[in-house]
Structures are given as C-alpha cells and as structure tokens.
Amino acid sequence: MFEKRAVVYDGLDCMADMKDPKYTQLTMMSQNEISWESQADYAKYTVYFGVVIIFISFLKHLYYRIRDYRYKSILVETTTKSTNTIFSLIDVLISYCRFVGYKQTPNYVQYWLSFPKSIGSTLFMMISILYLSCYCFVPHFWYRQCAGFGSPPLAIRAGMMSTALVPFTYVLSGKSNVISMLTGISYEKLNVFHQFVGVASFILGVVHTIPFVYQTKIEGGTSLLREYFTTDSYFVSGIPTLILMGLLCTLSKDWFRKHVYEIFWHLHWMMGIAFFGCLIWHIDYALGAQNYMWGALAFWATQLIYRILIKTCFRPNIMFLRSREATLSKVDDNTFELFIENVSDYKWKPGQHCYLRFKGLRILDNHPFSISSCSETHSGMKFLIVAKNGITKSQHKELNKNITMKKKVYIDGPYGGTFRDVNKFEKLVLLASGTGVTATIPFLTYMAQQHQLNTPESQNLKCINFIWVVRNEKDISWVSEELINCKKILGSKLQIDIRVVEFEKELSEMDKSADFEKSVTESFNFTELPINYGKPNIPQILTNLQSSLSIRNIFICSGSKSMQAQVSSKISKFQGLIFNNDLRNTDVEEIYLHNESFGW
C-alpha cells in the first residue's frame, strides 16, 4: 500500500492546518480572486446565449410572416417580382444560409456523434459547443490551492451552466411550447435540440463532479471520499441526479426510440420528473440556482396546461373527457385506415399530425399519425396507418378477424406542419414515399379546395407537382380517389408523377439485363392516374423541374430518410438560382423546403 502524501501550499498542510490564521488569510485571498458569488454569472450568460439564439430565430420567423403578407397583397395586383432592394438583399442572404443549411451531414457523423441530418443544425450545435466549452474551460484557475479555500471554480461554473440549460431542456420537450410559438419551428424538429441541450447539460454535470472527487481524493484520500459520499448532502444528492441525467440522454437515442418507443416514452417522463426533484435537492438554494429550476417548472407547467386544455380530451367543450368513435378499415395485408367523423370542433392545417390513444388496456400508449384528410373539406379526420410494432400492430391483428371495426380513441393534437402558407407560393412540389403521402396529400386537397372556391389566394398558384414513390401498385389505392378528384379540379395545374418500384409483370431477359434504375420500362394510365414503373432517380426528377421553377417555390417532402437526404441536397443546389440570379438571369426569389418526418 502506498502512503498518502500530504498536499502542502505555502508551507501549510491543506488538511492538517485548516485552523491556522495564515490558512484563513489564504482563503480570503483565494476568494477575493474568484469569489463564490461571482460564479453565478456563468449561469446568467449561458441563458443569455440561448435567448439570443431564440431571438434571431424569432426575427427570421417574423420576416417570413411579413414577406408572405406583402407578397400576397402585391401579387393580386401584378405578376411582376414582388421585392424591393432590401428584400432582395435579404432573400440572397437567406439563400446562402439555405445553400449551407440544407446540405446533409455524413451518415457516419449522424450515427456516431448523434448530430442532426442537416449541416445547418450541425453547425449551430458546433457553435454552441464551442461557446459552452470556451466559457467553461478558458477562465482560470480551475482548482483552488487547497479544497478548504472553497469549491473548485471549474466545478461551480460547470454546475451553474448545467443548471442554466435545464429550463431550455424542459421547454423544448413540450409538444406545445413557447419556442415553437416564437420561431415557427414545430416541436418534432426542435426535438433534436432538446436532446442536444440535455446532453450538454449532462456533460457539464460530469465536469461539475470531477473536480470535487479529484481534489477530495488528492487531499483526503479514499477514506475522506468515502465519508463524503455517505454523509455530505451535496455528494449524496449529486449521485442520483447525475445517473438520472445520464439515463435520460442514453435512452433517448434513436435505437431505443425506434425499437421500444412506448417503453422509452413512459420511462422518459417518469425519469424527467425524478431528475427535476433530485436536482432541486442537490442545488439546495446555492447561488440562486433554484430560480432556474422554478423558471423551468413555470414554463413546463404552463405549456402542459395549455396542451391539456387546448389539445386533448380535457378541452372545455361538449366532448370533455369523452372519447371519439373511430372506424378502422383494413386496406391491405399491412395497412389500415382510421376515420373519425365527429371532429367538427377541431381545426387543423395540412401536414399536421395527432397523437391517438385507444380506449382499453393500452390507453397509456399513444403514437403520432399524420392527418391525411383536409380540414377544409369537413369530411372528418382520416389516418392511413402501416402496422409496425406496438399499438399499430395490435390493432391490425384485430382487423385480420374483421374487415372493419369500431374503436374509441382520444385525440391529442393537432401538432406540427409548416408555418408557411402554401397559398403564398406560385409553385408547390409535393414529394412522398410510401405512407409519407399522408403528410403531402392534405396540401394537395387543400389547394384544390381553394382553387374550387376561387379564393383570391388561389390566383397565385401556377403549378403543383405531385411526386409519389410506392413499393407496390396496390398502394396507389390509398389515395387514388383524392388524386383523381384533385386532377379534375386543378386540371393542367396539377402534374402527377407516381413511381412504382416493384411490380409483378414478366420482364424479358433484355429488360432484366438493362440499367433498370435509370430506365422506365412502362408508363400508362391506371385508374386515370399516370404511373411509371422502376426505381426513381429523385435528383434527376428534381433537376427536370428546375426549368419550371417560378418566382416563389415551396418543396414539401415526407418519406424515407434517403429521399429526404436527396431532396435536401438538391434544394441546396437550387439556391444558386437566387444568389447567382445575375449570372443565370432567373426571377426566382425563394426556394423553401419543408421536411415532414417522425424520426424522434
């Protein structure tokens, strides 16, 4: 066994000479250099950083609102470009930002570092990491010469910064939250930042812990460290707090959410409450850190109350605490339709989704489903659902015994969608794969409804491109009726492109040996809809649309990760039509991309 060596500073033993007057004098000198109270500022400026980011996003949201309103009022009177010099300059600046932001993060970076898909979000995270790291580690000194002079400055500032991030974590966790209201960014897209802020808070929590453990071990040995972990309230309360924070971060990773979503969801909210209580216990009113916790509680509670009273069955109306009757109909071997007729008290926008709870044994389980019907048609809420795991699989099993059945469901929503109004764009491009069409078809039916009513806003529309990739030909029946009706209403303004990847037709040996991915073997009308067979080349399809782009264009994509990645990369390149306008002689002012996904 090695004998523990005493830590000596200025001739004093840090443990044995704590009652020496000189020790007291050195303590005062250390505190004068970095006082205990001054370290509260680290939490304050961490909050300021977050507030500045939100404010910048708010300004962007406000600009879009003003821009859309101004475009609408001008376009009714003229077909010329609707910008002045200032707006043109801002449009070019935004196009540069989109050129970078729409690019995709390499897959290995997403997988190993849990970075988001877009370069824009990744760059924001890297800037935030740089700020937090520099603010935490650059100031010196990290440790005091003796533990008795006061807590290690590195530990205190890291702890205060970690606590200051907690309100953002809880605000970002809400389906209805104030950040979404200010920025126009829906909660499911903010979820990646909810995870990021949680991980940042956890890492700062680890940094907060290490100096206490290290300096105690160096000066007092393992015996003192053991004593602190059993008797000191800060050490005792810090253990469960750090463990819960680590579990919340770890169990939020894609694998857990994908394979055991219901288990993840229930564990997450229970551990979130437990973590909040443990952190209050650990803070113990030190440096006013409890104020950040009360702020987090106030925001979280307000958001929750709003959601309960506005979005759920607790809404104070005639359906208070009552379930809705839903009709489930089997569509094919793996898909079923859920239709709720009595929803006159609900209003939703294209692309939004609801969480559904089925009355019965699994009432605590819920899952998001895109609303595939349009609110403007007053035809009820329709959901197209592919049976996978959990509640969708159990409901489909019941349907195997019955072609249709009635179920009682509770609606929580609507949520999501885009804050941009598609009426403000001249060209609308809808891209989907598989059941992702449930997020794009409402936009099409909504625009058809506006066109049929001949509203002033509908006069803006020049063209809609509807692109849908399905695995099998039978999948087209999911929305074939809606597509045919929209085609009758919109006429030549609607261009439909349906791609069927797999089909049962016999191919000759020559066809089988051909470059099947780049060729279309057959194209004809099926149920009045144009269908192309063969695996589509999404970048090429988008390239073919480049020459038909109008002044203002919006692309809405809902489907597989690979499709969304290809679309994002291509729209990034399209931004050159805006910032290179003088070279290419185009009149394009905006090319906006909205991705719908439920990858959280």
What's this, in brief?
The chain is of the alpha/beta class. The protein has helices at residues 21-33, 41-75, 85-101, 107-113, 119-137, 153-172, 178-183, 187-231, 233-250, 254-259, 261-283, 290-311, 391-399, 437-453, 480-490, 509-513, 538-545, 561-574, 576-579, 581-584, and strands at residues 8-9, 12-13, 324-330, 335-340, 352-358, 366-370, 381-386, 404-416, 427-433, 463-470, 494-500, 523-526, 529-533, 552-558, 590-596.
List the main descriptive attributes of the protein structure presented here.
600 residues; Elongation Factor Tu (Ef-tu), domain 3; 3 domains; seven-stranded mixed sheet; six-stranded antiparallel sheet; 50% helix
What does this structure look like?
This protein has 600 residues and is α/β, with parallel strands linked by helices. The chain has three domains: 156 residues; 93 residues, Translation factors (Elongation Factor Tu (Ef-tu), domain 3, Beta Barrel); 175 residues, Rossmann fold, CATH 3.40.50.80. A seven-stranded mixed beta sheet has the order 12-13-11-10-9-14-15, with helices on both faces. Strands 6-5-8-3-4-7 form a six-stranded antiparallel beta sheet, with helices on both faces. Strands 1-2 form a two-stranded antiparallel ribbon. The two termini are 51 Å apart.
Layout of SSEs?
Blueprint: E1 8-9, E2 12-13, H1 21-33, H2 41-75, H3 85-101, H4 107-113, H5 119-137, H6 153-172, H7 178-183, H8 187-231, H9 233-250, H10 254-259, H11 261-283, H12 290-311, E3 324-330, E4 335-340, E5 352-358, E6 366-370, E7 381-386, H13 391-399, E8 404-416, E9 427-433, H14 437-453, E10 463-470, H15 480-490, E11 494-500, H16 509-513, E12 523-526, E13 529-533, H17 538-545, E14 552-558, H18 561-574, H19 576-579, H20 581-584, E15 590-596
Parallel strand pairs: 9-10, 9-14, 10-11, 11-13, 14-15
Antiparallel strand pairs: 1-2, 3-4, 3-8, 4-7, 5-6, 5-8, 12-13
Helix pairs in contact: 2-6, 3-5, 3-18, 6-8, 6-12, 8-9, 9-11, 14-15, 17-18
